[in-house]
Design a protein that fits this description.
By secondary structure, the chain is mainly alpha-helical. Helices cover 69% and strands 5% of the residues. The chain is built from 17 helices and four strands. The protein has helices spanning 2-16, 19-53, 67-74, 87-95, 109-114, 131-156, 177-185, 188-215, 217-222, 228-259, 266-275, 278-305, 309-316, 319-329, 347-358, 363-389, 391-394; strands at residues 56-61, 79-82, 101-105, 121-125. Helix 3 links the parallel strand 1 (56-61) and strand 2 (79-82). Helix 8 runs parallel beside helix 12 (278-305) and helix 8 crosses helix 15.
Length: 397
Amino acid sequence: MKTILTIFRKELIDTLRDRRTIIAMVVVPLLLFPLLIGISSKIMISQMQKAREKVLKIVLITNNNALEFREMLKNRDDVILIENLSIEAGKSLIETDSLDAMIVFDKEFDQQVARMKPGNVIYYFKSTERGDIEKSRVEKLLSEFEKELRSVRFKNLNLDESIIRTISINEQNLASSKEKVAEILGGFLPYLFIIFCFMGSMYPAIDLAAGEKERGTLETLLTSPASRLQILIGKFGVVVLTGLISAAVSMFGMYVGISRVREIPEELLKTVLGILEPQSIIMLVSLLLPLTIFFAAILLSLSIFAKSFKEAQSIISPMMILIIVPAFIGLMPGMELNASTALIPILNVSLATKGIIAGTIPVPILLEVYASLIAYAAVSIIVCTKMFEREEMIFRG
């Protein structure tokens, strides 16, 4: 054990001297989250505010109908009313984002309403993510006009408007605030944690095997009294530690980033920060530990196989795609943690994290996730050990 600790200490010191490792393990996750959260939240809030305050350009073709609606729009400060324009010209301007909407009333609109029938209106718009706010504003104008016409109709009939309500629905959403936030953040957060966990392990793994091959220091280490297994465990421990530190720093960076965004409503901020409670963090780390061991063993195996630092980089770098794909799948709507998905590495961590944050993950499924991760980690360690014992791998090239 003393020999393993000596090797671990030696490898850890060498790793911490490498600026690339420090940048990948600490600097990037610590700075990236506050920057991402701060910049993205400000841009999003700014764009939404612009969409709400924007003066809407609306083409109105009444065909000598709905004069009340025309007057309502003319008296609004947040609407520029454009008339005397053809439908085709209006559609072209909307497609080029020169107009926000075009409302065309049927030629018999007033007659249809007078006969107690619904009047036909065509509403043209171009919907985008930001444009959805503008679309809802135009729809609100139409809704107000419809409400006014309905009120007049019921008044002429001497009827109470409440008679059209045949059922009163009182919606009660039983999902907790944590569950609502978990649905939004639960897939996104593990996506980032997993990537940083992999990145934090990558550079030390490359340097401690392929790097030492290239420098010629691996042969010196093999001549020491330490066995190959002890040497491997020492190196392996450093790779796992750097991966966990990178993931932990990314969690801390996220906490700092969220807590510094003043635009987030206080209630939502408390809910989000409440997710990072000690119990949730412990469970997240318990998931990341076997996953990091799995990553470390694979990365060390590939680094042992490589002839040089550069070759190890060229072999390992494309692996990022294999890490991103299952983590990204966990972001997709409808993906749930079940007996099947609990067996898929990386994806199971992504989905399990969502359940942990929401506090709704079934214990049997969680145990299956742990069992599968431990099994993958054990197999990868055995493969790595076998490779390190082979002379043709260590002295390859």
